[in-house]
Amino acid sequence: xxxxxxxxxxxxxxxxxxxxxxxxxxxxxxxxxxxxxxxxxxxxxxxxxxxxxxxxxxxxxxxxxxxxxxxxxxxxxxxxxxxxxxxxxxxxxxxxxxxxxxxxxxxxxxxxxxxxxxxxxxxxxxxxxxxxxxxxxxxxxxxxxxxxxxxxxxxxxxxxxxxxxxxxxxx
Length: 171
Description:
It is built from 1 helix and 13 strands; from the N terminus they run ββββββββββββαβ. By secondary structure, the chain is mainly beta. The strands form 4 sheets. A 5-stranded antiparallel β-sheet has the order 9-8-7-10-11, with no helix packed on it. The longest helix is centred in the last third of the chain and has 4 residues, at 136-139. It starts with a strand and ends in a 6-residue tail after the last strand.
């Protein structure tokens, strides 16, 4: 059992017989009345979002999420295919169900999250080494660096190895 005092971004909870991930939350303590928590939740099965207000200290059941180490194999249409390195079984996950799919590279070792035996998300490493192309425009002047994108297949003049936090937005 968890409490709204334990909310943090990325927390997985069970609510209304579904598994939800906390996207945003805000503890509000008004001058008059009791405190409450506003939250934005994402349903990990359907992808829909829900804004819910909780009483401060309200309890909820934690989602029993299992973690399984797998290797990314390939993309088949709209599905990402992962292989369990112990049993060599394949697991297919819809691209829309993976939040950080831009960070997934060939043969990468990842942790697949499962709820009631069904894959719901993929955890990527917190930091990764990626090649960041720099355009001519970014080479002019000290403060005008604008990367084209990570591992972008565009015309490049120079490549740099950069450590990138996977929590950054690539768009």
